[in-house]
């Protein structure tokens, strides 16, 4: 019992996970009878796990054996699992080698080259046929002293840095990074650096200076010569972001003649430790000291891969602008860049590079406070600072400024710029987080065949050490403080996390608020869509799906690890061709979050699948299956608008081998509600908030308003995180120049919902004047507003005054009119409307569908109730029977009863009085028949055009002869012959103003005032009415 309790305690601290022994047991069974003495190299291919196709790396150059970090590690890990006999017993573990590579490179500015050279053995293709071995029940048996193996070579070398910036670099091959087979003697190292100089000889541990005259992708060829005349080759790729030794002459920040270059500034201690920033200062032309500072704070940067050069110079292809660079054109005609424009505005750039870009946000904020004080101490003149924070830098900068205010310190800052900063958190899809935590926590039982086949238990990360990079990124303090949804645990112990570090920082940050000192202006660039447009997939769609053999190290390095580098805004991908002839089969299914549902979002497992000697089939589980479900409180944020991360828009394209597996290459990294800090963190974010319109033209209203005085959102589609563009670059420049504008293309949004509205009365009396005003319009709006009224004759005067208009009704219209304001935007105009009623409100008779009708039809000896809609503000009613021998009974306000014992037709009208006086009369025709078949609601005449101007055409409807017509034959005849029909036009006071007989023909409307009229057509014993508008 004591031993059991002790084991339980140990497991609770070490997160014990079950070791899968299926593969070990299978290999022990197959190879348990072979002799290790025949494996003279110490490595037997079939005994191990081929994480990559090591046969391709045979010491000769080919189009498929490029080497990068992932491939190099996979080769070494593969060899490590192939050890048989005592020759290779002392081989260093894969994890220790991986650590050594990182440690060596981190300690020098030289670009180090690592190499491995081994020999291994594999079964001859005809080993069974030649009788070199026998197979019985999937067990291999040696035959006497016959040797069943061929010997093969593996050689791989690569530079540990694949992305270079500048023109001259120092390369070195240290002895500590060369891993050789026992007994190998290295005589010569030669490298062709792809700079046109051919192979150059390098001495061990001695730096070699290499200069490039151009940028782009370079092939690095590495040649090792060994004693015995053996020469092997390997090749790799690097990308050179070329910066000429002599900067271009045009006016722009270029990194030359710096006032300070990586000057160290250390902040006060936070929670016992201090952070340091490396500050670079480049002055504007004509300045000898800091005069007009623009302080730029970088974002999350775990490996210090983003620096001042990245900020001022585009590191992408010529037609692809890297995220986070101001080297972007903002005037296509002249080629002016944002870089040049900021310099032209006289700003001195002060770039803050974190020494530790993953530290606590508060600690780095204390450092930025020190930088601000340092700048203020050096600054000449009275110009105040501008402070811009990019991504996480926006949080650091805001915290620093506000903390200075809280502690009564003067920051001398006039403008704070937040560039796609995750004020309410950032997002890395939870399914991707689950994958790395699942695999990092798994242990594998490998067979090791020295004298006997023994078990070697090791973590999966020992053979795939770069997995630890992903977990390390997730577990950094800054990542934990920013990520909205997170997980705990590893292996099979993964669970959804309520991260205390995240919640405590969010509360502190929210409560601090925004900088306020000296009326500082706070603005934001959000890379999300103004329209609230989501990405091209739905909640709970599949992000990644694979069930195939692959080079797992390559898959991890070139796809999955890139997702975690989204936190940096500076992707690390550098791809080489994929080799799929491996022993590793993966099953992964990763899904986007559903909307507040409990659903499986991750499933993953890994197999070993291979065939030995063409007849022995091995398919054993290596990593057990793990699934994870989302929580029903989680919003579907993976596919919504925001600053996005896109695997396909990196400097290097997504490996084509995985295009069918990576179903969605984009995901939302910083939701728009977060970059705009909607509700300042005090309001619950709903699913509708993820897709709403966030337009600077009419910012969202309180309580879910944005605290920024002005903000930019991208028209229609979301952009890459911290992307500067032509549009947001011009917007930013105007702010820096002190001439703020707003940028909006909300007119392009489908079903945009804005709080813009026209305020004013809903009714204007005839010949009276009222003023209307637009509300909720951004105060920075400097476009043109054009007012109009439809129909135009409804008003006699319109006085436009920007956001307000004064109109006077003409008295020619009683009814609805539309007041419209048309606002010019950066795309098409945006219109807003208000319906107003001109004159006293006329009563309306509505059918069951809510449509106005102008006739009552019925049968004899039946009482018909007539109920008018009650107009708003009605004070008095008046009914008047104009013609007909029917009875109008029980008249009271909006109600009356119609009755007739014999067929009858005629007209009555109704009007009401409100604060504007008596309304026009509403005329209603009455048609009572004693034959049920005579009743029809079908109109047998048409009147056009409607609205009309000078002439009204009246003719029989084309379907009046339809056999289903309800008219009696004599009525049809009378209609056809037009011998007893007439058309009379009444104004809304009930006065006849025009008449023609027969009913067909043209009615001259000249001289009639604009307004609404009733056309009454009588044919035989029938009456029908039409509402006519005269313009």
Q: Taking Cα atoms only, what radius of gyration do you get, to the nearest Å?
A: 40 Å
Number of strands: 55
* Approximate strand percentage: 25-35%
Average the pLDDT over all residues and give the rounded result: 87
Beginning-to-end CA distance, first to last residue? 99 Å
- Biggest sheet, in brief? 8 strands, mixed
Instruction: Write out the strand line-up for the largest beta sheet, numbering strands in chain order.
Output: 13-14-18-15-19-20-25-32
Number of contiguous helices: 18
pLDDT below 50 for ≥5 consecutive residues: which ranges? 1-18, 569-576, 959-978
Query: Structural class given helices, strands, pairing?
Result: alpha+beta
Spatial shape: elongated
Proportion of helical residues: 10-25%
Domain Secretion system C-terminal sorting: 944-1030
Region (Disordered): 962-986
Pfam family, one: Por_Secre_tail
Organism: Flavobacterium silvaticum
Based on the model shown, name its key terms.
1031 residues, alpha+beta, Rossmann fold, Immunoglobulin-like, 8-stranded mixed sheet, 5-stranded mixed sheet, 17% helix, 35% strand, elongated, AB_hydrolase_fold, signal, Secre_tail, Secretion system C-terminal sorting domain-containing protein
Structure explained in plain terms:
Residues 962-985 have a biased composition (Low complexity). Residues 944-1030 form the Secretion system C-terminal sorting domain. Pfam families: Por_Secre_tail. Residues 962-986 are annotated as: Disordered. It is a single chain. With 1031 residues, the chain is an alpha+beta fold. Among the domains are: 16-161 and 168-243 and 442-468 and 550-556 and 568-591 and 597-633, no CATH class; 260-419, 3-Layer(aba) Sandwich (Rossmann fold); 757-838, Immunoglobulin-like, CATH 2.60.40; 936-1031, Macroglobulin (MG2) domain (Immunoglobulin-like). It is built from 18 helices and 55 strands. The protein has an eight-stranded mixed beta sheet with strand order 13-14-18-15-19-20-25-32, sandwiched between helices. Strands 1, 4, 6, 7 and 10 form a five-stranded mixed beta sheet that branches. A hairpin with a 4-residue loop joins strand 16 (329-331) and strand 17. Helix 3 (69-81) packs across helix 14 (552-564), helix 7 (361-378) packs across helix 8 (392-406) and helix 9 packs across helix 11. The N and C termini lie far apart (99 Å).
């Amino acid at each position: 019992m004591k031993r059991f309790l002790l084991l339980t305690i140990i497991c609770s601290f070490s997160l014990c996970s079950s070791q899968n022994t299926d593969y070990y047991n299978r290999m022990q069974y197959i190879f348990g009878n072979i002799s290790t003495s025949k494996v003279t190299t110490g490595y037997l291919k079939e005994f191990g796990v081929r994480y990559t196709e090591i046969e391709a790396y045979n010491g000769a150059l080919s189009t498929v054996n490029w080497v990068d970090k992932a491939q190099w590690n996979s080769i070494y890990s593969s060899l490590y699992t192939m050890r048989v006999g005592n020759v290779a017993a002392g081989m260093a573990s894969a994890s220790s080698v991986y650590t050594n590579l990182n440690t060596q490179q981190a300690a020098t500015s030289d670009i180090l080259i690592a190499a491995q050279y081994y020999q291994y053995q594999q079964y001859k293709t005809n080993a069974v046929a030649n009788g070199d071995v026998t197979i019985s029940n999937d067990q291999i048996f040696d035959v006497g002293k016959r040797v069943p193996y061929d010997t093969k070579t593996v050689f791989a070398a690569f530079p540990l840095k694949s992305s270079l910036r500048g023109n001259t670099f120092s390369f070195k091959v240290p002895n500590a990074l060369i891993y050789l087979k026992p007994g190998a003697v290295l005589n010569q190292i030669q490298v062709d650096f792809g700079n046109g100089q051919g192979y150059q000889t390098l001495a061990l541990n001695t730096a070699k200076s290499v200069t490039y005259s151009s940028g782009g992708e370079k092939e690095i060829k590495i040649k090792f010569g060994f004693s015995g005349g053996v020469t092997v080759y390997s090749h790799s790729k690097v990308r050179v972001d070329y910066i000429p030794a002599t900067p271009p002459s045009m006016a722009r920040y270029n990194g030359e003649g710096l006032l300070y270059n990586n000057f160290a500034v250390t902040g006060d201690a936070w929670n016992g430790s201090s952070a340091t920033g490396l500050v670079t200062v480049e002055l504007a032309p004509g300045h000898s000291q800091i005069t007009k500072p623009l302080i730029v704070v970088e974002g999350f940067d775990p490996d210090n891969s983003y620096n001042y050069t990245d900020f001022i110079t585009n590191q992408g292809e010529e037609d692809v602008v890297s995220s986070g660079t101001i080297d972007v054109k903002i005037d296509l005609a002249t080629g002016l860049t944002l870089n040049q424009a900021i310099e032209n505005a006289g700003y001195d750039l002060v770039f803050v590079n974190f020494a530790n870009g993953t530290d606590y946000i508060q600690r780095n904020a204390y450092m930025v406070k020190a930088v601000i004080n340092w700048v203020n101490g050096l600054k000449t003149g009275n110009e105040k600072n501008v402070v811009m924070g990019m991504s996480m830098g926006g949080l650091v900068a805001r915290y620093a400024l506000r903390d200075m205010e809280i502690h009564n310190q003067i920051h001398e800052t006039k403008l704070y710029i937040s560039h796609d900063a995750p004020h309410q958190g950032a997002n890395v899809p939870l399914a991707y987080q689950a994958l790395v935590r699942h695999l990092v926590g798994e242990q594998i039982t490998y067979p090791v065949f020295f004298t006997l086949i023994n078990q070697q238990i090791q973590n999966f990360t020992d053979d795939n050490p770069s997995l630890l990079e992903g977990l390390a990124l997730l577990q950094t303090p800054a990542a934990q403080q920013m990520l909205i949804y997170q997980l705990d645990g590893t292996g099979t112990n993964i669970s959804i996390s309520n991260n205390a570090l995240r919640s405590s920082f969010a509360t502190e940050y929210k409560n601090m608020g925004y900088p306020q000192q000296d009326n500082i202006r706070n603005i934001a660039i959000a890379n999300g869509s103004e329209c609230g447009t989501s990405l091209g997939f739905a909640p709970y769609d599949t992000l990644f799906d694979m069930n195939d053999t692959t080079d797992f190290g390559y898959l991890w390095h070139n796809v999955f690890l890139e997702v975690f580098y989204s936190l940096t805004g500076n992707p690390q991908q550098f791809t080489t061709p994929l080799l799929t002839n491996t022993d590793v089969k993966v099953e992964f299914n990763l899904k986007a979050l559903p909307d507040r549902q409990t659903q499986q979002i991750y499933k993953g497992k890994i197999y070993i699948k291979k065939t030995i000697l063409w007849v022995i089939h091995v398919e054993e589980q290596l990593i057990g299956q793990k699934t994870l479900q989302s929580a029903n409180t989680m919003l579907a944020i993976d596919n919504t608008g925001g600053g996005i991360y896109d695997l396909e828009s990196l400097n290097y394209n997504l490996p084509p081998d995985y295009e069918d597996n990576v179903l969605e290459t984009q995901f939302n990294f910083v939701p728009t509600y977060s970059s705009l800090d909607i509700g300042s963190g005090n309001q619950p974010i709903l699913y509708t908030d993820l897709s709403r319109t966030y337009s600077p033209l009419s910012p969202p209203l309180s309580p879910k308003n944005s605290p920024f005085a002005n903000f930019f959102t991208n028209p229609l589609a979301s952009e890459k995180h911290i992307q500067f563009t032509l549009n947001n670059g011009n917007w930013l420049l105007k702010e820096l120049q002190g001439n703020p504008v707003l940028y909006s293309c909300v007119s392009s949004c489908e079903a945009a919902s804005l709080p813009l509205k026209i305020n004013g009365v809903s009714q204007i009396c005839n010949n009276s004047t009222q003023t209307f005003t637009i509300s909720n319009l951004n105060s920075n709006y400097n476009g043109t507003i054009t007012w109009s009224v439809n129909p135009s004759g409804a008003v006699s005067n319109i006085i436009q005054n920007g956001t307000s208009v004064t109109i006077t009704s003409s008295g020619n219209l009683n009814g609805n009119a539309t007041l419209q304001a048309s606002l010019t935007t950066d795309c098409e105009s945006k219109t807003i409307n208000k319906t107003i009623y001109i004159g006293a409100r006329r009563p309306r008779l509505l059918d069951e569908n809510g449509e106005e009708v102008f006739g009552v039809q019925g049968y004899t000896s039946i009482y018909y109730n007539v109920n008018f809609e009650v107009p708003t503000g009605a004070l008095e009613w008046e009914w008047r029977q104009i013609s007909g021998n029917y009875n109008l009974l029980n008249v009271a306000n909006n109600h009356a009863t119609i009755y007739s014992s014999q067929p009858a037709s005629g007209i009555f009208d109704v009007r009401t009085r409100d604060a504007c006086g008596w309304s026009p009369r509403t005329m209603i025709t009455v048609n009572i028949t004693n034959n049920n078949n005579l009743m029809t609601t079908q109109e047998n005449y048409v009147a056009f055009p409607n609205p009309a101007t000078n002439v009204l055409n009246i003719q029989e409807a084309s379907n009046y002869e339809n056999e289903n017509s309800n008219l009696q034959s004599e009525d049809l005849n009378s209609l056809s012959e037009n011998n007893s029909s007439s058309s009379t036009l009444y104004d809304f006071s009930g006065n006849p103003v025009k008449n023609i007989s027969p009913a067909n023909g043209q009615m001259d409307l000249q001289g009639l005032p604009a307004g609404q009229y009733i056309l009454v057509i009588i044919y035989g014993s029938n009456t029908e009415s039409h509402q006519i508008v005269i313009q």
